[in-house]
Amino acid sequence: MEGDEDKDNLSSVKHIVVVLSGKGGVGKSTVTVQLALSLRQAGKRVGILDIDLCGPSIPRMLNLQSKDVHQCDAGWVPVYADRERTIALMSISFLLENVNDAVVWRGPKKTALIKQFISSVAWGELDYLIVDTPPGTSDEHLALVEGLQRYSIDGALLVTTPQAVSTGDVRREITFCRKTGLHILGIVENMSGFVCPHCEECSNVFSKGGGEELAKVCGVRFLGCIPLDPQLSHSLEEGRDFIEEFPQSATFTAFKHLAQAVERGPP
Ligand SMILES: Nc1ncnc2c1ncn2[C@@H]1O[C@H](COP(=O)(O)OP(=O)(O)OP(=O)(O)O)[C@@H](O)[C@H]1O
């Protein structure tokens, strides 16, 4: 019988994008979800693999936290966010008895689960698989890069905030990508400028432009700024589709441009 590690469920996935950040809380999961929804708007089928094993937040953002995964011959059937099955999600949350259970695992156990996620999720035909990772460069990232070695990865999207740019964490992510041979698609500056919920004007409460500067210095592409938008965080908190709710917003346009940059692929 075929072992799990021999399954080739990713052969029907056209593009793989890995979302990374040096620091926690800069908006990796937010960018992952909104990028997936923007690509869906552009007619793509998208899968999201959440390998943030200790802090999975994507099921809540997509209002899927009460769902379970099922088994089929090819492996785990991911959870779908819509009836048309255009957004599929796999997360450790779906395997826990209680969504609030803490995952306290050492490296080898995390590595084994990530390798299983890579081989044993029956994604079917996908245009994009977007992988949301924990902050930093740890066991999860190494297991992911090793597990994906036989596939062609489009590259990594590095998420930062204007404040996090100066800390050197993003530089460490760039070094990680270069050492492991992971192509860098570019840097996204999230929470860049504040969108007033009343007049929708965007003002720069924190510094802006650090991401672009860093991209220039490090010789990687700058993929744009996403504003800090209270309407976006409310939508995510309540598991509502921000893109459907606020199609006229500057934040929506920013994600649309990001999706177009991802679709253009590596430079
Ligand atoms: N552009 C934005 N506008 C408003 N709120 C945002 C924005 N980006 C992220 N947030 C909010 O910031 C918080 C952290 O975002 P998120 O969970 O995406 O970060 P993360 O980098 O994935 O965190 P972790 O390191 O814990 O995985 C969330 O409450 C999210 O709703």
TrEMBL record:
Give the protein's biological function.
Component of the cytosolic iron-sulfur (Fe/S) protein assembly (CIA) machinery. Required for maturation of extramitochondrial Fe-S proteins. The NUBP1-NUBP2 heterotetramer forms a Fe-S scaffold complex, mediating the de novo assembly of an Fe-S cluster and its transfer to target apoproteins. Negatively regulates cilium formation and structure.
Q: Which CDD domains does the record associate with it? A: Mrp_NBP35 (cd02037)
Cofactor-binding details, from the entry: Binds 4 [4Fe-4S] clusters per heterotetramer. Contains two stable clusters in the N-termini of NUBP1 and two labile, bridging clusters between subunits of the NUBP1-NUBP2 heterotetramer.
- HAMAP family for this protein: Mrp_NBP35, NUBP2
Q: Give the transmembrane region(s).
A: none
Q: Name one GO biological process term.
A: iron-sulfur cluster assembly
- MF terms (GO), sorted A to Z: 4 iron, 4 sulfur cluster binding; ATP binding; ATP-dependent FeS chaperone activity; metal ion binding
Q: Which Gene3D superfamilies match?
A: P-loop containing nucleotide triphosphate hydrolases
Sequence positions that bind ATP: G22, K23, G24, G25, V26, G27, K28, S29
| Keyword vocabulary terms for this entry | 4Fe-4S, ATP-binding, Cytoplasm, Iron, Iron-sulfur, Metal-binding, Nucleotide-binding
What the entry lists under PANTHER family is as follows:
CYTOSOLIC FE-S CLUSTER ASSEMBLY FACTOR NUBP2, NUCLEOTIDE-BINDING PROTEIN NBP35 YEAST -RELATED
| SUPFAM superfamilies reported for this sequence | P-loop containing nucleoside triphosphate hydrolases
- List GO terms (cellular component aspect): axoneme; centriole; cytosol; nucleus
Residues the entry annotates as binding [4Fe-4S] cluster: C196, C199
Pfam families from the UniProt entry:
ParA
Spell out the family assignment given in the record's similarity comment.
Belongs to the Mrp/NBP35 ATP-binding proteins family. NUBP2/CFD1 subfamily.
Cofactor(s) the protein requires to work: [4Fe-4S] cluster
Q: Which InterPro entries match?
A: Mrp-like_CS, Mrp/NBP35_ATP-bd, NUBP2/Cfd1_eukaryotes, P-loop_NTPase, YlxH/NBP35
- Name this protein carries in UniProt: Nucleotide binding protein 2 (MinD homolog, E. coli)
Keyword Ion transport attributed: no
